[in-house]
């Protein structure tokens, strides 16, 4: 591996903030307090769909310790979300049990909770609609007057390349199925929070759990009418995000309004139940899929039609079809593709962004059908995948330009790890299955800019401060940035401090999403470090009477190229550059905008500067008496371009696999008539340490020419192929195909019984 | 109000508490020991785990008065004499920390295990932390770190 030539890239550098975290010293939003701080709480709807007849807050207002009570009457009509269909406080009508009706600020949390109980709301319950197919039928209860058919028209999309009808007519095998995917949710261990504080001059500071500080600043400004120039957003340490903190939600402007009204700082932190009921979900999908192939195993056509449950309002989650589309159009070489999607409003919880952003659903659909096609053709599913695998240099029908692609190697290495050939298609109740993925790995241009800015400051003592637009949510981006700067600049990583996620200080970045931080912010940090290095070497050259191009710097020492044994500490040269009559300090900048394009009206275009690939192969054992599936091993082979920090890469893979395992076998947010029935960890089954199988992480390095030191984004992908790989392994083990997640023992047992009955009939 | 006297991280502490106060609230809100995290409030996730007379308890379910006259150890009491505890070092070095919200509780469950079993198997480690949920790591590096901090 090439990592040997690097000093810090490719090294297992411990997370910069780990010491603070293992000692309990780090202050998450939940731990923050300001003098005179009040606690905010929100009253939500009792009904999934109802007319609000009256709200009486008088008793709450009279409660000692209550400083403010607000309802929609007290504020202008404010609408948030990407489609601006979501009132911050609801007037007239509530459309889901999450709906915010009133908010209270009080001296402590108990008083705030007590005040909520004193608010009296009279409702007239309205018939609700909880199934997206039902919602689109004529005569269904209507949620929004602007959408009389309950369809979010902005997300009704149709994509095609080639001609699927022709593709199917030329196929030797064509299969058609319906697959369905459930509500699941992020379960960040740290719940959502915000702390809002106004200065006497009216400047607003919020400490937030957002993963998109700059878009959040814009969103707060737009909804509250406060100039963005008077808003400072600081992302406080968060207990995980996984997409849940991509949007701004009503509790955030509500908290600011409470702070404005009381003149005191106000903090809102979610309880666990709120996090389950009020936090976003991954969107459930009803999917009809048709796929075709020739007898020799060449894919011919893929047609997918999806219905998404949007819930009552549109968050960023409503735009996940754009990501699903890429997998449907471009995972494996498919000459003819058609994709239609409709997003329907229901009185269910509204969906949001969650790790993979639609790709876990799309990959479940595509990889289930790839497996089924292989079996129809009588081919080894691994060989079928290899035959159709994407390759470096491919441009897909959607215009996705694949520069580096390790898919073939991922398939082969994952298969080898589970001894695929030896274990496949055996008569026992054990089986192997696999699934692959494609995902953006070089940014994702969904906004006019997909860039990131960085500043590198080098002080007189050799301390290097990277001020980065990027956002660390716990995944370890700061550490990776520090390694990149240390490598490029030629200083020890211990000299590097990272400052980020403060809109008053850090240069702009679109936010932590789309697995883009290492690639985009990493390239930006590298450019700033290059600039800093040339400033230092130019100063040194003047001082030493040398030419800058003849000098180099490594591990904090400046030397003539090729003569590293005779060196000067770099901080000495920084000082000599500074302390002279025409002196200057070392202050460097980097701005990186990936060389990509926005999609055209037909959704074609290359939105990412690189693409990540992976294959996970799984071995399972199925108990045919109980239907229980035990995962014995997961081999996860990921093309990450280059692992800047292999320990962090492994950590992302392990965590993603456990999330994928949950999606595959255990997790479902049970929603009935719009009510969440399992809003706690006792009833929502998160994988525990005892549920985790052996994971073999296989890092495939393709050294992407556009990535920082060759790296591509890799964090979301880890959770994407696990569930379909498990489903495919279950089929290999016992011959039943589970088409809706999670794969519960009940579903497996039912399928086994049906299989037995149909075999007996024969 | 009741008088609660306990030995907290090796030092005697006396505090007046409401009769129904929970240990986590006394630790965090009254005494400022914010290292202990509340992530569910129902004793289901283990983030609030502290040691009560050496045994792991979910402090969000324990009435504070139960700690009277007893030893309480929180994450802040793990390091001693300016030296991190071997578990803390191992968590750092093995990449067992990501968002870190489950980390204090994980460390306390792990300490309780190693205090009674110097040579745990992987299975015993997994069992010991099975009440501590983590969404970031898949537990792999946490198990590795605990193993590394054990006597092998």
Quick recap:
Chain A has 762 residues and is of the alpha+beta class. Helices cover 28% and strands 25% of the residues of chain A. Chains A and B meet through helix 1 and helix 17 of A and helix 2, helix 3, helix 4 and helix 5 of B.
What does this protein structure show overall?
The complex is a heterodimer of chains A (762) and B (152). By secondary structure, chain A is an alpha+beta fold. Chain A folds into 3 domains: 2-25 and 451-592, Aldehyde Oxidoreductase, domain 4, CATH 3.30.365; 32-126 and 191-238 and 245-278, Aldehyde oxidase/xanthine dehydrogenase, a/b hammerhead (Aldehyde Oxidoreductase, domain 3); 281-445 and 599-761, 2-Layer Sandwich (Aldehyde Oxidoreductase, domain 4), CATH 3.30.365. Chain A is 28% helix and 25% strand. Chain A is built from 19 helices and 32 strands. Chain A has a 7-stranded mixed beta sheet, with helices on both faces. In chain A, a hairpin with a 2-residue loop joins strand 30 (671-672) and strand 31 (675-676). In chain A, helix 9 (321-330) runs parallel beside helix 10 and helix 10 runs parallel beside helix 18 (722-734). The longest helix of chain A has 28 residues, at 517-544. Chain A is globular. Chain A starts with 17 loop residues before the first helix and ends with a helix. The mean pLDDT of chain A is 97. Chain B is of the alpha+beta class. Chain B folds into 2 domains: 2-77, Roll (Ubiquitin-like (UB roll)); 86-149, [2Fe-2S]-binding domain (DNA polymerase, domain 1). Chain B is built from 5 helices and 5 strands; from the N terminus they run ββαβββαααα. Chain B has helices at residues 23-30, 86-93, 103-116, 122-128, 140-149; strands at 2-8, 11-17, 49-52, 55-58, 71-73. Chain B has a 5-stranded mixed beta sheet, sandwiched between helices. In chain B, strand 3 (49-52) and strand 4 (55-58) form a beta hairpin. The longest helix of chain B is centred in the last third of the chain and has 14 residues, at 103-116. Chain B is globular and about 45 Å long. The mean pLDDT of chain B is 97. The chains are: A alpha+beta (762), B alpha+beta (152). Chains A and B meet through helix 1 and helix 17 of A and helix 2, helix 3, helix 4 and helix 5 of B.
């Amino acid at each position: 591996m090439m990592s040997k030539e690097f000093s810090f890239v490719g090294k297992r550098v411990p997370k910069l903030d780990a010491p603070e975290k293992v000692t309990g010293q780090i202050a998450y939003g939940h731990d923050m307090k300001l003098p005179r701080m009040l606690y905010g709480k929100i009253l939500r709807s009792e009904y999934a769909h109802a007319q609000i007849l009256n709200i009486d807050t008088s008793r709450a207002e009279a409660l000692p310790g209550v400083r403010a009570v607000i309802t929609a009457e007290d504020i202008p009509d404010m609408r948030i979300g990407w489609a601006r269909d979501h009132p911050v406080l609801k007037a007239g009508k509530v459309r889901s049990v999450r709906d915010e009706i009133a908010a209270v600020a009080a001296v402590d949390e108990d008083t705030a909770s007590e005040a909520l109980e004193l608010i009296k709301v009279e409702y007239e319950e309205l018939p609700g609609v909880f199934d997206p197919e039902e919602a689109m039928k004529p005569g269904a209860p209507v949620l929004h007057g602007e959408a009389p058919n309950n369809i979010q028209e902005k997300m009704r999309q149709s994509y095609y390349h080639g001609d699927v009808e022709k593709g199917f007519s030329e196929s030797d095998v064509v299969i058609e199925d319906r697959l369905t995917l459930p509500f699941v949710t992020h379960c960040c261990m740290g719940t959502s929070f915000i702390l809002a504080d106004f200065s006497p001059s009216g400047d607003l500071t919020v400490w937030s759990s957002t993963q998109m500080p700059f878009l959040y600043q814009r969103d707060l400004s737009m909804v509250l009418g406060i100039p963005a120039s008077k808003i400072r957003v600081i992302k406080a340490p968060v207990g995980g995000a996984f997409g849940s903190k991509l949007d701004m939600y009503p509790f955030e402007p509500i908290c600011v309004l409470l702070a404005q009204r009381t003149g005191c700082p106000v903090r809102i932190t979610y309880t666990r139940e709120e996090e389950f009921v009020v936090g976003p979900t991954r969107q459930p999908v009803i999917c009809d899929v048709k796929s075709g192939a020739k007898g020799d195993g060449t894919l011919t056509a893929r047609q997918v039609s999806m219905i998404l449950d949007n819930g009552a309002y549109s968050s960023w989650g409503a735009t996940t079809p754009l990501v699903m589309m890429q997998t449907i159009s471009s995972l494996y070489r498919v000459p003819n593709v058609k994709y239609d999607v409709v997003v329907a409003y229901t009185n269910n919880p509204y969906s949001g962004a969650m790790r993979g952003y639609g790709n876990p659903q799309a990959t479940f659909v595509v990889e289930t059908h790839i497996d089924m096609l292989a079996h129809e053709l009588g081919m080894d599913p691994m060989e079928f995948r290899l035959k159709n695998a994407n390759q470096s240099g491919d441009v897909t029908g959607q215009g996705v330009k694949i520069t580096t692609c390790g898919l073939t190697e991922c398939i082969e290495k994952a298969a080898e790890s589970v001894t695929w050939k030896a274990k496949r298609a055996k008569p026992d109740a054990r089986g192997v299955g696999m699934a692959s993925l494609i995902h953006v790995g070089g940014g994702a241009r969904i906004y006019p800019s997909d860039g990131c800015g960085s500043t590198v400051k080098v002080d007189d003592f050799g301390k290097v401060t990277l001020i980065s637009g990027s956002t660390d949510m716990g995944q370890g981006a700061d550490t990776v940035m520090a390694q990149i700067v240390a490598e490029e600049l030629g200083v020890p990583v211990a000299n590097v401090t990272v400052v980020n996620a403060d809109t008053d200080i850090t240069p702009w970045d679109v936010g932590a999403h789309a697995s883009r931080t290492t690639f985009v912010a990493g390239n930006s940090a590298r450019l700033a470090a290059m600039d800093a290095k040339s400033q230092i070497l130019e100063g040194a050259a003047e001082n030493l009477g040398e030419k800058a191009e003849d000098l180099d710097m490594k591990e904090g020492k400046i030397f003539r190229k090729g003569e590293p044994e005779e060196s000067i500490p770099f901080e000495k040269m920084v000082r000599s550059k500074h302390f002279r009559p025409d002196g200057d300090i070392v202050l460097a900048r980097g701005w990186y905008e990936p060389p990509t394009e926005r999609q055209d009206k037909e959704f074609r275009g290359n939105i990412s500067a690189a693409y990540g690939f992976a294959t996970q192969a799984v071995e399972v054992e199925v108990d045919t008496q109980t239907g229980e599936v035990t995962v014995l091993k997961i081999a996860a082979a990921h093309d990450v371009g280059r692992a800047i920090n292999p320990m962090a890469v492994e950590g992302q893979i392990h965590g993603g696999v456990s999330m994928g395992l949950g999606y595959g076998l255990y997790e479902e947010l049970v929603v009935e008539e719009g009510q969440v029935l399992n809003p706690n960890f006792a009833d929502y089954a998160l994988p525990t340490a005892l549920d985790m199988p052996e994971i073999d992480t296989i890092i495939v390095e393709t050294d992407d020419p556009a990535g920082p030191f060759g790296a591509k984004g890799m964090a979301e992908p880890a959770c994407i192929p696990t569930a379909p790989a498990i489903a495919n392994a279950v089929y290999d083990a016992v011959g039943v195909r589970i088409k809706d997640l999670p794969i519960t023992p009940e579903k497996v047992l039912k399928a086994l019984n049906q299989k037995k009955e149909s075999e007996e009939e024969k | 109000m009741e008088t609660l006297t306990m030995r907290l991280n090796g030092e005697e502490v006396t505090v007046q508490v409401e009769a129904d106060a929970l240990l986590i609230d006394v630790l965090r809100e009254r005494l400022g020991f914010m290292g202990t995290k509340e992530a569910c409030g129902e004793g289901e996730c283990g983030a609030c785990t502290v040691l009560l007379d050496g045994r792991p308890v979910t402090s969000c379910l324990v009435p504070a008065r139960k700690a009277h006259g007893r030893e309480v150890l929180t994450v802040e009491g793990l390091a001693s004499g300016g030296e991190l505890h071997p578990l803390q070092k191992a968590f750092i070095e093995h990449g067992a920390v990501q968002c870190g919200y489950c980390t204090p509780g994980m460390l306390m469950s792990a300490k309780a295990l190693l205090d009674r079993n110097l040579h745990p198997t992987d299975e015993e480690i997994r069992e010991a932390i099975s009440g501590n949920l983590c969404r970031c790591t898949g537990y792999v590096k946490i198990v590795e770190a605990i193993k590394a901090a054990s006597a092998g």
